[in-house]
Write a structure and sequence with these properties.
957 residues, alpha/beta, TIM Barrel, Rossmann fold, 3 domains, 6-stranded mixed β-sheet
């Protein structure tokens, strides 16, 4: 709570300084300052809400009262800041209006010969019938007369007045027609000049500074500059085919205006099968960020002159180092970035860094992007805006999206003259021209890949060049011979046959597990690709109006929403629904009404023989989540989330699962509430958790095996996310662990906190005090965060998390993220992950499927860095020791996941041993027994021939 208070205080002080700067010179204040103030106001409001939420759960009344007083002050300051900001904006607007009026009134007379008015007649007299030269007062009946004329004279003067007035008005109209005619000629001249400039730029090459200078001019006179111009973008993925082949990117460069170069990432959650495949091939070929930069350098050296934009995911860039990446990009010749999963608040900081190195940041906008988010994203665009559109529902249909002109009109309304490039669905010359009529740029990607795939070996570059020439209507002279270089074919990828398919043979004699479908790396279904999925990510649901500009909640530096921009509105809808449920007593009454169905409260009891096996000098207790309905703690979250889904009006459920327990729990609640359910599960986990697969299907759910990547939990999460974004309006994703973008970690922790809260109450009832330590296994972290959170503010209680050490953390074959990982971004959240030096997510290993994951919940990462919790790892062999010990001493067969916690608790018991053997001096340790081991019996039998000899356990018969 203190961290959030300090954050709010810092934001408040920053706001005060910004408003003071604004107040000193309202008319000179930049739009960037106004945008910063607006964003900070939203951020402060969100921080205050988080602080209020935490203060309500503060058990110490004195601290709670102090927090309430701080809240009042913060809210009063926020209201004051908003009122001051509104007043300053009005003052600025009024000052600008006055300035414009004064400038208008201060212009020279109509007949003054100035550059603004070259059509003035210098010989004209300054006086006219509207302004008599004699300055006589207008009185009586005359028009400008002195009032001493007869009625007849008045009539004659009035007649003369109208004749002269008519003559001068006709002259003014003639002058106006001449002005319009000359302006039309000038506009046509400028159009032709601009086209020539583009040809010159393509021929001679232009620097980044020159490009930005031209863009600034375009913003000033956009109605002239951009008229009739279509900028051609081509998107490719860098996969480095065999060496000594010609460079496709260079060959097509003379017909492209801008090249988007895709950077490979192991977990591209927003991409369809084609882009996934290109990533797989690139990584198999050893492509890294450094190699991509090297290819750009070689392409520049070979003569490539058009701008190059890097497009990809944030984690490889984060791992490479933001500042180092930007500096190296500037030196290599990269012109800018499109970051698919960079949230707006991070994008603002990233854009500022880009400007330091004179690089561009390109935001993405999809058709259903809300007005507020569109304004925000347009503000941070400095070169162009990538507008995602699609042709039909599942790909190109030959007809453009009928709402595309309306979308472009909205973008242009807020873009301030920044050009917009439309991507996806364009493959023909006619479509290129049609989109070009309403947009300043057109992006083509998949069709270029198709042309490469159809080309004969060694002819890819020529095929791309011919296609680009046909599409753009531009022809180029044959390229001049260049000095021999080592450049490979940048910007293309091979067919999927070049990639080795990851897989594992079914063990001889093992039962065959049948699933409903299988997703492999070779699948290329006619489903949405990258741009189409970005579109689907942004589909508005139920007509809600979420707060799209809100900054995601974080746990220190961890958390956030690192997802494609268009997913933000969907997450905001989920957060709003969850927040309303939290405040609704009827929701919690309904949730608790299912406790008898769930088996809550779960029992807590001592394990005396296990305590004796651990040395006998500490009392070990078991929190029996294994006795819950479905056999694990997963039912707590699954039931809570399906109630949220029903409140949001969702009619279909999807989920991922590793060990199968979350899949069983989700299928169970879906059966109870009559909702269709699809469970995604890694193919390796399907093999080793065959019993749970059968249980899921018995409950009426479908199981989709993911036979891609490492074929484990991580790949199941990838596919579940991809499936979710296609059907946002009807589907809710019940994520199983405390991972993913905000608000998922908070939602899972909220429903799993029942574990720790019951433990607190039960220990006070049984021994009259809190335990000395609580222990839980850690994969993604759902049972650990549920056990730890209620004790987070009790410093006397030690928190110990035990991760999957696999073959040992030093071997690389493990899943110990907090013990052996580093900070990165995976599945939409900034947290500790297992990755290599290039930011690619590492394959993991654990004997327990539920812990076989390369990431961890952001709140656990925060507790690690703050030293509130301690995390260790247990190898597969050590987990087997825990499994065996509990089975033989207490008659309880635990899940392999829980077995890691058992071994960790036994080690902790030796560390915390009291000074004497009586119960008074013994420490009390509680283990969260997260699940039962029925599902793992076959896996233990399979692994015993290898692990058994290491621990002296032989069950051969």
């Amino acid at each position: 709570m203190n961290t959030i208070f300090n954050s709010a205080l810092k934001q408040s002080n920053g706001l005060r300084k910004d408003l003071d700067s604004f107040a000193q010179a309202p008319t000179a204040a930049s739009p960037a300052l106004q945008g910063q103030i607006s964003t900070t106001l939203t951020s402060l409001s969100r921080t205050i809400d988080d602080y209020q939420f935490l203060s309500r759960s503060e058990p110490n009344q004195e601290k709670k009262d102090k927090a309430e007083e701080r809240l009042k002050n913060f809210k009063a300051d926020l209201a004051s800041y908003r009122a001051q900001f509104d007043e300053l904006k009005k003052e600025r607007e009024a000052a600008i209006n006055v300035s414009n009026r004064n400038e208008l009134l201060g212009r020279r007379p109509h007949n003054a010969p100035t550059p603004e008015n070259p059509y003035a007649h210098v010989s004209d007299q300054a006086s006219s019938v509207f302004a008599p030269a004699d300055g006589s007062a207008q009185a009586g009946l005359s028009m400008g007369g002195a009032g001493n004329y007869t009625r007849e004279e008045h009539a004659l003067r009035e007649q003369n007045f109208f004749q002269v007035a008519n003559s001068q008005l006709d002259e003014f109209l003639d002058r106006g027609r001449a002005v319009l005619g000359d302006l039309g000629q000038q506009r046509e001249i400028l159009k032709g000049t601009q086209k020539k400039l583009y040809n010159v730029a393509n021929t001679l090459g232009v620097s980044g500074d020159t490009i930005r200078m031209v863009e600034r001019r375009a913003k000033q006179d956009k109605w002239i500059f951009w008229a009739g111009v279509i900028v051609f973008f081509s998107f490719c993925a860098l996969v480095l085919p065999p060496p000594n082949r010609e460079s496709t990117a260079v060959a097509g460069s003379e017909t492209d205006n801008i090249i988007e170069l895709g950077l490979a990432f192991t977990d591209p959650i927003a991409d369809g099968p084609t882009i996934q495949k290109s990533n797989t091939v690139a990584l198999a070929n050893g492509v890294t960020t450094a190699i991509a930069l090297d290819q750009v350098r070689k392409a520049r050296k070979a003569g490539l002159r058009v701008p190059i934009i890097f497009m990809g995911y944030y984690n490889p860039l984060l791992r490479y180092g933001e500042d180092k990446m930007l500096r190296d990009c500037q030196q290599a010749g990269v012109n800018g970035f499109i970051m698919v999963d960079l949230p707006p608040e991070e994008a603002v900081k990233f854009r500022q860094s880009c400007r330091k190195y004179k690089l561009s940041y390109v935001p993405l906008i999809a058709p259903a992007t809300s007005e507020k988010r569109m304004k925000l994203l347009c503000k941070i665009a400095d070169s162009f805006i990538y507008v995602v559109s699609r042709m039909g529902v599942t790909g190109a249909t030959g007809a453009l999206n009928t709402k595309l002109p309306e979308l472009l009109a909205r973008v242009h309304q807020y873009s301030g003259g920044v050009p917009a490039a439309v991507g996806f669905g364009v493959s023909t010359r006619e479509q290129f021209q049609s989109v070009g009529d309403i947009a300043e740029g057109v992006v083509i990607g998949s069709q270029i890949v198709t042309e490469i795939g159809k080309a004969a070996q060694g002819q890819a570059a020529k095929a791309v060049q011919q296609y680009c020439s046909h599409i753009s209507g531009r022809t180029v002279a044959p390229p001049q011979p260049q000095p021999k270089t080592e450049a490979r074919e940048a910007g293309t990828f091979e067919t999927v046959a070049a990639a080795a398919k990851a897989g594992a043979d079914v063990a001889a004699g093992a039962p065959v597990v049948r699933v409903d479908s299988v997703i492999t790396e070779d699948d290329v279904p006619s489903e949405p690709g990258l741009a189409d999925q970005l579109d689907a990510l942004n589909v508005a649901t139920n007509g809600t109006t979420p707060n799209p500009a809100a900054i995601p909640s974080r746990f220190g530096e961890f958390g956030g929403q690192y997802v494609p921009e268009s997913l933000m509105d969907c997450l905001a809808e989920l957060e709003e629904g969850f927040s309303q449920a939290l405040k609704d007593p009827r929701f919690w009454e309904e949730y608790r009404s299912y406790y008898p169905y769930m088996g809550r409260p779960s029992s807590l009891h001592p394990a005396p023989r296990l305590s004796e096996a651990a040395g006998g000098r500490a009392n070990i207790y078991l929190k029996r989540e294994d006795l819950n309905h479905t056999g694990s703690h997963k039912i707590n979250n699954a039931l809570g989330q399906i109630l949220i889904a029903r409140r949001l009006g969702k009619t279909r459920i999807i989920a991922e699962t590793g060990a199968g327990q979350h899949g069983v729990a989700t299928a169970t609640v879906c059966a109870k509430f009559g909702m269709p359910c699809v469970i995604y599960m890694g193919a390796e986990d399907v093999r080793r958790q065959a019993l749970n697969v059968f249980r899921i299907k018995l409950l009426g759910a479908k199981v989709v095996a993911v036979d891609a990547g490492s074929r484990t939990l991580r790949d199941a999460v990838n596919e579940a996310l991809r499936a979710w974004v296609v059907d946002l309006d009807t589907t809710h994703y019940i994520i199983g662990s405390a991972i993913g973008p905000h608000p998922f970690p908070t939602i899972v922790r909220t429903f799993q906190s029942v574990i720790g809260q019951e433990t607190k109450d039960q220990m006070k009832e049984q021994i009259g005090k809190l335990p000395d330590a609580v222990v839980a296994c850690v994969g993604g972290g759902s049972n650990a965060v549920g056990m730890f959170y209620p004790f987070a503010n009790d410093p006397s209680v030690k928190l110990l998390g035990v991760e999957a050490g696999g073959d040992g953390v030093s071997t690389g074959r493990h899943s110990a993220t907090l013990s052996g990982g580093s900070i990165g971004v995976l599945h939409g959240v900034r947290t500790y992950i297992l990755q290599n030096e290039h930011g690619q997510v590492s394959d993991t290993h654990s004997v327990s499927a539920g812990l076989d994951y390369p990431g961890v919940g952001p709140e656990l990462s925060s507790w690690k860095d703050s030293h509130r919790a301690r995390f260790i790892s247990a190898t597969d062999a050590e987990a087997f020791i825990g499994f065996r010990t509990l089975s033989e001493t207490e008659g309880i067969i635990p899940a392999l996941e829980s077995s890691h916690a058992i071994w960790g608790a036994m080690q902790l018991a030796k560390e915390l041993a009291g000074d004497d053997d009586n119960d008074e001096g013994k420490k009390n340790i509680v283990i969260c027994l997260s699940g039962r081991g029925d599902k793992d019996v076959q896996s233990v039998a399979d692994e015993l021939p290898k692990i058994g000899p290491l621990i002296g356990w032989d069950l051969r018969f």
